[in-house]
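Holo prediction. Input below; ligand is magnesium ion.
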Amino acid sequence: MPLLADDAPALPLDAQGILELAARSMFQLFSSVSQGMFLVDRSGRIVWVNEGYQRFLPDLGFSSVDQFVGRTVEEVIPNTQMRRVLETGQPVLIDLLTNKAGTFVVSRIPLRDDADRVIGAIGIVLFDHPETTLQPLISKFALLQRDLDDARRELASQRRRSLAVAGDGERRSKYTFASFIGSSPAAAEVKRQARRAAQSSSPVLLLGETGTGKELLAHAIHAASSRASGPFVSVNIAAVPDTLLEAEFFGVAPGAYTGADRKGRDGKFKLADGGTLFLDEIGDMPQSLQAKLLRALQEGEIEPLGSNKLVPFNVRILAATSRDLASLVREGKFREDLFYRLHVLPVRVPPLRVRRSDIPALVEALGEDLALRNGTAPPELLPDAMALLAGQPWRGNIRELRNVLEQAVMRSDSQSIDAAQLERILREAGVEPAAPAPVQDPGHAADAEDESRYLRPLAEQVAELERKAIAAALKAHGGNKLATARQLGISRATLYGRLENPE
Ligand SMILES: Nc1ncnc2c1ncn2[C@@H]1O[C@H](COP(=O)(O)OP(=O)(O)O)[C@@H](O)[C@H]1O
Ligand SMILES: [Mg+2]
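Structure of the complex:
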């Protein structure tokens, strides 16, 4: 079939007519392919909505078009950015809008008269439920958003510090032990272990599921250590391409490469000099680099790429992984010798589900943090909402809890949040909500039950028992080691050995 029928009328010759036709065709196209459109006048009042848009009205809290049309756009569409378009005259071709009706991909285009004055704007909902249709894009966006948040926070705290202490170092830790919320037995125990690790200069290995607070604890350990005034530098090994990791770690000597890197570049070991280097996701390290890292740790020296020179470093290593490092060793994917070098002070960070009694305190702290960032009041969870949170398995741990709260804050137009809202958010994130559970006080027996399911290796439990027995006996004998050894039925040498190397 020919695209142009022979009897189709020709385009009118005058330019104005063509433009009008083009505009009308575009308008009709968008109106039919988009999920909905509306128009506002220059004062931001809604003057028209198309049929597609009408199905969003119930979720926005309106039962008829008459209630919607005539109101100002902010009044009826929470979080809208339409006002900016009217004020600046600049279109926003693509944006994400989240409010109580959901998350939408939207366009906003100013309307101009013949004298080029902005006389209104058109809002287009290109997609609704992008969390299903645009999933890959959205998760990438969420990741970038998080990195951006972190970078902003870092920058803000640097500014604060540089105001306080002009010319002070710029790489510092963001958190202290006070930032680690939780008073359940499991939380108290991990804090105790981490505090002890801060007193030592040996490597620390933080083990635990994703989102449990390993990175937060790494910052806190640095801040409580004797290196607190030195830099805190981190590398996320999973986020750097394998081929770039060596340069990232050890740096590049001047002249080793042509082009941008000609001048050479400091590696993270150099940047962390006098401070702490945090190796995040160490289980993802390629084998070739494992060998080089091991050598560096053994010799206390690094070799920048292309330099042939060994440079001593003074850095304390903290490492973390969400993988089962011991089984990676068994499978031959992680070097056993490197494992033992790093496994000097292991700290197991418990999943949120073994410390459910910390959920109310976490909700409060995370809610306040979100409110500060968004310039809103902190959310208030109704009792049914809190019980729902207490019952979830939280595979993404505190990071997941934080994301759920953030969505709830963004979407709710009142401060109080109920269980139904949270259920919807969980479902949209692909999680089938579990049944609500009673909200417990910290340290309630329910935590202990959960904890018993999270059994630690026997060797670790035995070592802990031993440590406690020795400490108690030492105390009972006023620090007298001979009497302590005698009472415990061990030799003095054994006692000294245990005291020197308590793990
Ligand atoms: N105990 C805690 N108290 C308050 N916030 C926490 C706690 N643990 C984790 N968080 C927050 O949860 C998120 C994930 O923590 P993070 O340290 O990055 O986890 P991991 O490194 O184990 O994946 C961060 O926003 C962190 O600030
Ligand atoms: Mg992490």
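DSSP finds 23 helices and 14 strands in the chain. That is the main takeaway for now.
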